[in-house]
Amino acid sequence: MRGFSTNAIHAGQEPDPTTGAVIVPIHASSTFAQDGVGGLRNGYEYSRSANPTRTALQECLAALEGGRHGFAFGSGMGASDVLLRVLLRPGDHIVIPHDAYGGTFRLVDKVLTQWGIEYSTADLGDVHALRAALRPTTKVVWCETPTNPLLGIADIAAVAEASHAGGAKLVVDNTFASPYLQTPLALGADVVLHSTTKYVGGHSDVVGGALVTSDDEVAEQIRFTQNSVGSVPGPFDTWLTLRGAKTLAVRMERHSDNAERVAEMLGAHPAVSQVLYPGLATHPGHEVAAKQMRRFGGMVSFRVAAGREAALAVCAGTELFTLAESLGGVESLIEHPAAMTHASVAGSALEVPDDLVRLSVGIEDVDDLLEDLRGALGRL
Ligand SMILES: *Cc1c(COP(=O)(O)O)cnc(C)c1O
């Protein structure tokens, strides 16, 4: 079996058979010529159903996650929507994390409930809490690890076992870890989801999503539903995502190097009351993270001792860390979850502390990042 980076650079990406182009072309064509009625060349007919640039990305992502089937979407939420339509029917129940990604919570709470889907939230870091949340009608358990923005860790193998024992399929949203750090299918997950907008694309220049599974039946239903509802990415976007994926391994190594240094510095800083990073030995999920992740990634959250106003001041006080939502790009970002990414969950079970700051640590020179954060904390 080939290594991760070899797959990232070559899987699905043979030189173009007609021209020898080393890089997969952007196949900007909505339709494909047929050799006689029904005589498709290489199976391509119409780009909603399949497009060669998209096929290359899908084969690459499937190889990176160690799955048989990959599907690329126009966004992470587009992928979630199609997957949940495949796995759930009216009357079914889904368990989502108590600190699920806000958009996932909204999709389940505001959209799927209109179609007769029931849901519960549970702390998936605690398998007993998951078992207690399962019902006879539970068809899906939705897991994120590390979670956003609290960087909680779930034991994927244990969650898979509990889900399967309860008759449910396990979906893992692997956006925060990326396939370089963690491959959930190998740990028992049935389907892996990505917002490729984040680490897989990696350059904050394209929105996209993906699903990977080795379950042939689920894959066939995803293929049918995706084509039926038209939730597909364009060839330019898939090409950008594929270009980003080639460097995923080197970027994740550097993100992890830099985040470890940032977490260490913050942990020793008097203005910081708590650092949430699974790479720290003091993190409650550290052991599980060390077991299932190659390294600990680029996301670091911390609580500011002086409270909400001080946390807002830190977010406004950095220069290199840009104040913005999203994550996973080469540049460092800072945000205040309670007022920004998680504002919509205020008052719900998913509410986050208002002294919390979330960092997406980029791959700049780490000394510059440390100085920037020290400066903002020092001005409090
Ligand atoms: C961003 C994100 C999503 C949604 O993806 P989009 O590409 O923005 O639609 C889903 N899950 C997680 C963990 C995310 O960070």
Automatic annotation (TrEMBL):
Q: Which residues carry this modification: N6-(pyridoxal phosphate)lysine?
A: 198
Tell me which cofactor or cofactors this protein depends on: pyridoxal 5'-phosphate
The protein's matches in InterPro entries, at most eight in alphabetical order, are given as:
Cys/Met-Metab_PyrdxlP-dep_enz, Cys_met_metab_PP, PyrdxlP-dep_Trfase, PyrdxlP-dep_Trfase_major, PyrdxlP-dep_Trfase_small
Question: Which CDD domains does this one have?
Answer: CGS_like
GO BP, sorted A to Z: cysteine biosynthetic process via cystathionine; transsulfuration
Where on the tree of life does the source sit, at the highest rank?
A: Bacteria
Instruction: Name the EC number(s).
Output: 2.5.1.48
Entry's Gene Ontology cellular component terms = cytoplasm
Known catalytic reactions: O-succinyl-L-homoserine + L-cysteine = L,L-cystathionine + succinate + H(+)
Sorted alphabetically, the keyword list is: Pyridoxal phosphate
Q: What is this protein called?
A: Cystathionine gamma-synthase
According to its UniProt entry, this protein's organism is Pseudonocardia sulfidoxydans NBRC 16205
The gene for this chain is metB
